[in-house]
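Q: Sequence in, structure out?
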Amino acid sequence: MKIAVALALLVAFALAALVAAVVQPVFRRGPAWRGPRADPGRLSGLVHALVALGPRNDAPGQSRAADWIRGQIVGGTPFHGERRLEEQRYLANGESFRNLVVHLGPQTQDRIVIGAHYDVRGPYPGADDNASGTAALLELARILRGAQLAIGVDLAFYSNEEYGLLGSAAHAESVRGVRAMVSLEMLGCFDQTQQFPFAALRLLYPSRGDYIVVVGRLQDVPLVRAVKSALLANGAAARSIDAPELIPGIADSDHSSFWRNGARAAMVTDTAWYRNPRYHTARDTPDTLDYGRMARIVDGMAAWASSVPR
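A: Exactly. Output:
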């Protein structure tokens, strides 16, 4: 009897440890963002403007989008007259593509990277996937203006995520000293039922998809916890999952390019096809996004970026 009880307790403890490792409960409040707040109206305007440029699935479309992003950065107040924007060009299938990287903060040997892709799958609007991440990154650049950053922060706008992670792969292979990378991948869908790749996950996460998810591997636990706590502290309903890459969707964005190059990385996402029925369709339009919730995510990311120590 004592052996049976001991085994039962051991199994219960192992299950509890596994659940804690996967969902990463946060008990300490993260950093609060003290700077300018992200503006839902501005986020909406950015998404609408990017979608209005037309399809971003081929070289001309992506070049048009890159020009627009550059205009938002160089022509706007945050970086006018400063040489803080880098263009990284690379060739794919005989055509030229661009990443754009905004350098913020001190020129430290180590840095963090926050990235989002601006291309789309097929000739679709791509509002959630991924004009939402692109707009969030532009708004993050605005509100981080003048922030006291202890470490260099690179905001990276990637091409060709949908076509083999080519843009982020080129960046990850060329950049050095990346302490952590976070990919902003679909941030605007909060009006659908949450689906799961495995039935057991229904026991761990709410069935209503009104939260953002921070995704990482088991070895990315410190990063996932830090980003999640910052999101929670700034009003974003956030959950997290640390799991093996074999789970569908875990590695399907630009953060995995940094995994391949030995860096710690995570993804902030509304979980794409597990929630958004408009994913990769003509119905992925700007009017379907929740810009208020997106603004709170941007505030949380600003809090995290400004709290990373040197």
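The chain has one domain: 33-307.
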